[in-house]
Queue: 2 jobs
Job 1
Amino acid sequence: MPDRRGRVRSRPSGQLGRANTAGSCAEPPSAPRRRSRGSPSCARGIPVPNTPKYVYAFAEGNKDLKDLLGGKGANLAEMSNLGLPVPPGFTITTEACRAYLAGGEEPTGLRGEVDAHLAALEERMGRRLGQPDDPLLVSVRSGAAFSMPGMMDTVLNIGLSDASVDGLAAQAGDERFAWDSYRRLIQMFGKTVLGVDGELFEERLESAKDAKGAASDLDLDASDLRSLVTAYKELVAKEAGQDFPQDPRTQLDLAVRAVFSSWNGERARLYRRQERIPDDLGTAVNIVAMVFGNLGADSGTGVAFTRDPATGKQGVYGDYLANAQGEDVVAGIRNTVALADLERLDKASYDQLLDIMRTLEDHYRDLCDIEFTIERGTLWMLQTRVGKRTAEAAFRIAAQLVDQGLIDEDEALRRVTGAQLAQLMFPRFAERTERTERADASDDGDFRPIARGIAASPGAAVGRAVFDQDTAVEWANNGDRVILVRRETNPDDLAGMVAAEGILTSRGGKTSHAAVVARGMGKTCVCGAESLDVDPGRRRFTAPGGIEVGEGDVISVDGTSGCVYLGEAPVVPSAVVDYFEGRTAPTDGESDALVPAVHRIMAHADARRRLRVRANADTGEDAERALRFGAEGIGLLRTEHMFLGERRKHVERLVLADTDDGRTAALEALLPLQRRDFADVLAAMDGLPVTIRLLDPPLHEFLPDLTDLSVRVALAEARGEEDADDRALLDAVRRLHEQNPMLGLRGVRLGLVIPGLFAMQIRAIAEAAAERVREGGTPHAEIMVPLVGGVQELEIIRDEAHSVFAAVAEETGAEVSFPVGTMIELPRAALTAGQIAEAAEFFSFGTNDLTQTTWGFSRDDVEASFFTAYLDAGIFGVSPFETLDRDGVGRLVALAVSEGRATRPDLALGVCGEHGGDPESVRFFHDVGLDYVSCSPFRLPVARLEAGRAAVARDGGKGGDTR
């Protein structure tokens, strides 16, 4: 069987550890998930020291214990407490899983607790597990604290065997049902527990259907299924090297271990990295009495949502499949009917389900995702959770719930995320594409509609069609945009889904695996495009009219309308971007009320946040866009961009100058150009702070490439056409060339080594500000000195700046004295922040370079070489250049904040690295006490939203978390 690393190994007994002779505790827990090992448990009131409680009946739990019981177990307990129809069962805790994964065997006491709870379940149900004449069957389901749909393992119909299949048939009065349940058990157990390739089972099922001439598995009779069971058992014996176990308790024990082990399965680890779920949580295991949706036309299974998870609109949403078990719906193997059709098929169950949906949404105060089964007209609830939703739905639902009085505006702010807002800002297909709905429409430019499916996850995705996950990953790593096309997806396709721009399937509905996972990841998805004949073997699909699309052909997938196009459909900015740009008024939003919902939540975020939000902008045009996106100033104006193009020749003259006069002439040529640059930005940001970073990169970056220049000079000399200027320039480039320029002559070192360079920039700023004052403006420039490692460096530049300010003030008659501060981007600067604050009026944390110098990384090199291996090995959960490394870089930031403000209580503090727009990093900067964050203009709305969320998080409440 699979061990804790996912390998297959055998166990002699197939049992769950040693018995706990003391029994189990009957009182509900009140402690968090990691209960003390020294706290007493109880069994019938008798204390048992140092024995944790590993198993809980549903009656003992509640929805707040998901860290201990997993989301599924906690919510089953909650529904039981609400009096809803839940099959009886019990939950093995995440603590038991962690103990198993840590030690490689079940923890002491677990078997005894399982014995006790299984006996109680058997007594309640009036039959024993696997009882030959009337077998109790159970499901063994995973359930982590965070939803991980399809990423871990589940086994249904545990307890069925050669000895009990006839008893099940007799009790059900349906021989076909019993043998169908048995073949499902062997198939799931063989794949999940014994590691048999699932495709081998599918091949035998398809062969049985072909032999019968059956269109689906429903057309197979009891005799066909009995033969299929024999074929499955032979397959297990051949591929697993052992017979399918006939002992019901052995089945249960092995299934529990397999679910534990699936926590460390490849697809589960990949999903956790994608969703930033910690690796050390473990999964709970839920053992639940089976109810059957495959007992005939009066039975079935389905998934329901209390609101549309794709759009947020209220109504009846979901899928239903008659005469089926739950995995048939999720897998998308058979296309479902809309949930509303259940009213026609079984009105009593439909009405009861609607009542339960209302109860759950009012109770959870959120969109609920519900799994249910109808067994011969009796409705059973198998699961509920706060449902995953698209970004659009998240904002609309949050606003709707405020209007309904179920939550307040603070909670609405907690219910949405910066990542979701960023998704809303992606482009969408142009209107002319959206109007083209007929699949037989004539060619329209370079694209045309070819099919329509179910709009499962909104967005506009364009890419080359690929038909398996390996190709998707390979092509995406090579820079290609791809669309993963499958008949239906399963958890093994996760890597390809992550790599793809969008997902297209010919089977399945809004609750299929493809739809659920795509919505959770924010990927565009169209499911159930039944008119497409997908042939993975030939790597192509055929659309109506005989249109063939092969691997590598470009297709466009519209997850909002469900349309599929051949070719590249044009895209336009999203409605949300139009709103931020000021092209759309908040009240002029689309009919689905998305823009008004975004405006409402953004307004509340702005009202609640303490952190100010500035922009990284280098030109007047950038500054104007930043203002439209809500900037409250500029936190980083990079002057190095002002030395490119035609101005490069002045830099070359500065480098080549070997006299003071030559250097002065070069600086004087640059001065008016710099002054004009600063004047444009100060005018755009009039009245708001503008933090201007003095020149940072090494000068050689503004000079010709050493190799190219060397070749040019050598060729000229060979032709006898030597150019003295090129020769002088080559000598200068060689002189300035560095082996590690990131740690060489750059930043403040340039200002100290190249006389007059920083003074010229400071004068340009001061003169631009003086001009702005004369025009009636109120400029607020801030001078930022880069790469300071010691206070002495900053003191020299500060004194030089004050001298320039005084000179310009005397020359112009305008007050132009501005704060001088530094960029904290070296560990030494953070460690000596108390000293540096004596000379600095503000700190701005340059977290890009601070991350590089703390880790000893060259970002450009490591991201192209070993970062992928580090992520795969779990060394990084996410790149430290994407989300701030709190333990290392974050600790330096916190230290610098503390020691800097101890020296200068009014020290202004901000951050201007890329982390300033990262949602998780923004929350850290709020907590550590910064005054502002700064990021690119496009990321400003995300920073504003997350700053507001950080403020309300501190006021209590965790908000929605649908991971």
Job 2
Amino acid sequence: MDETRQSPEQILKQIEKEEQTLNRGHLKIFFGYAAGVGKTYAMLKAAHSAKRRGIDVVAGYIEPHVRPQTSALVNGLECIPNLVSEYNGITLSEFNLDAALARHPQLILVDELAHTNAPVCRHTKRYQDIEELLNAGIDVYTTVNVQHIESLNDTVASITGIMVHERIPDSVFDNASQVKLVDIEPQELIERLQAGKVYSPTQAERATENFFTVENLTALREIALRRCADRVNLLTEAVRIKSHSDYHTDEHILVCLSSSPSNAKIIRTAARMANAFKGAFTALFVETPDYQVMPEEDVKRLRSNMRLAEQLGAKIETVYGEDVSYQIAEFARLSGVSKIVIGRSSATRKSIFSKPTLTEKLIARAPNLDVHIIPDTGGKNTAYRAKKARKKNGIVFSVSDLLKSVAILILASCIGMLFRQLGFAEANIITVYVLGVLVTSVVTRHRVYSLISSIVSVLVFNFFFTDPQFTLQAYDQGYPVTFLIMFLAALLTSSLAVKLKEHAKQSAKAAYRTKVLFDTNQLLQQAKDKNEIVSATANQLIKLLGKDIVFYLTEGETLGEPHIFTVSGDKTDKEITGTKEEAVAEWVLKNNKHAGATTETLSNAKCLYLAVRVNSRVYGVVGIYIGDEPLDAFEKSILLSILGECALSLENEKNAREKEEAAILAKNEQLRANLLRAISHDLRTPLTSISGNASNLISNGNSFDEATKNQLYTDIYDDSMWLINLVENLLSVTRIEEGRLNLHITEDLVDDVITEALHHVNRKSVEHHITVRHKEDYLLAKMDAKLMVQVVINIVDNAIKYTPKGSNILIKTWKQGDKAVISISDDGDGIPDEMKERVFDMFYSGANKIADSRRSLGLGLSLCRSIVNAHGGKITVSDNTPHGTVFTITLPAGEVEIHE
């Protein structure tokens, strides 16, 4: 039982996934094996049935048909107007996505799932429009044929001889809520075609000759039936996996990426294998030095193949190296790959004397791996296009490299002449020239200089050091062999040096990118707030990519102001901001997907926009100005890792902020609870006393003598003053806790503050001896006089309350350096040492009893400390001699100006 029990993390993920599913619309695909089987007709019939059940149904886009039965079914359905645009002089009608989102029906019909949109549309493909509708919670009915499924494209093309360019990822088909197969017999379909129920007569005749044959239709029908069966198997497997935790096999399929036109077919085959084996799927690109000079056409094809592999569920990986077979085998060994899929052109030798093929090298280096060879029909000129380009554009003239090569050759010749004078053998001189060629290959930027240096070194050695000297002739029969060996040794050593140098460059590049990722992690850990996190992330992205960055933080459900970071340091780059660019960023925030340049969504944008997210929570959007150089696969991988680190840091910052706010809220709630608890008890006594005395005066006032009346009036006054002081303290405490204590600092005489305070102290002060002594005639302090009056009142009232009648209370003031000091002492019983540490804490009243038996709230001294600290001063408590307590207040002193 315990082995199959899910962890809390798994349960949480499952709950989040179920919540997303509940909020997401449902997709129903009407699936056929060819045009004319009745997909649109079946979809419209189902729409009318849904409408009769009370569902809000809208026709978003219905492909125009020549079939009257189909066209008639559109009647009675609300239709969203098409988006009409002009493109190359042609008027195009497209599905209006924004109008559909604004209408927001329960169910919408969108025909032709695999359709490619016009440039004016937001997305390149219609299935992306439908994905946005589903995310908005709208149910969708749509149609598609079997030849438009990505993984089946090659299989269908081999049957029909036609390569279909409008395709949808398999995941769209497999993740649909329902797939309804619309099926009729092939012969019946041909009869409908001939009757003009599918195409016009001219189109029907051409289709019957080329595509609509019984053999083709039967094969397509079989593929469609099998694909539906495969989808049922996937659904069954998904249910089994859900009930048995994470399930996977040990199979790991690796497909090799290249710029070959046939590489797409190999990728699709590998994807089908990965699905069949229920294993991991990885697409690997080995970047060699040839990639830097690859023709633009091949680069675009390579990127297209990478996007295809990504669509089919592959994880894209990039490695660097000259030896492709070694890099593949090493990656396969480290990643636990079980099967490698390559094309047939990589497995074919041109002649018996040709170098071993990639397949032969792979088998030799990884004998335990299964290597699957897929038929390659791409043509002979596609396998090594990059190498041909390198040879064509290889010679790069550089004055500095030429001068270096000549200087090294002259230096080698001088050393050779020195060796000859010293009687060294010719072998030593040959070694010097070989060393010179090796040095040339290291210090120059292109291998052509080392090749030329190898040839010239042989000629120079022949000219200066063989008999007859200073000619290019050689009498000794062994010299030609010597020259050949010298040339080959120089050429091989220089080639190895060039390869090592290029490998070192690639390694340094990869190490730098990896270091940027590690540095990002450390910088984000040190960041203190959101702005520092954004700044650290953007600067690291500039280091990695060398491109301008714009960063939008989220503010609730919207984007905040853009933070611009440029390579040049200019913070006002308007090219990467603007209404259109911000609209793309808003779309990314709303849909939690990539968009902008190099994507199929809003591709006219100047920046590539990516969500900074943790699962479905988006914390910001990053825009990267692409320009003329798109990101390569390795850069994109590091980029996503950095954004993931940034998202985690923003989430941690948010959690820490919320935790701090929760702690403050809890503290405030505790404060309110303590205040209510204290007030509810302590207000009862004076209020009862006031109401009782007032009731006696009203009811029996005429029967009381003057002394009794005066005593009742006095009690009412005392209780009222106690309540007033309590309310004043409560208001002050509230202002301090909420950060609303505004100080009005002026330079006032301390003597005036004390005099004013003594006018408002407890009426029972007449029962004590209060003395004031000033060592300075004019002592000024920088303070808010009104608040400091309250401080003195609270401390003197405490002395009156907690000391017996007849006690002495002494108030002294003096100047000590740049501080004004106020000391208030009494000769009462004093405060025990264990209570001194807590005497300024809020709601702490100690164990002392007050003469009138009222319990103190413990607010007075806490308020005094808060006010004094706000002034930049200090308040302390100490013992008086021989007994009693001393409260000492220090405040910033003011300067006395004397005008004569």
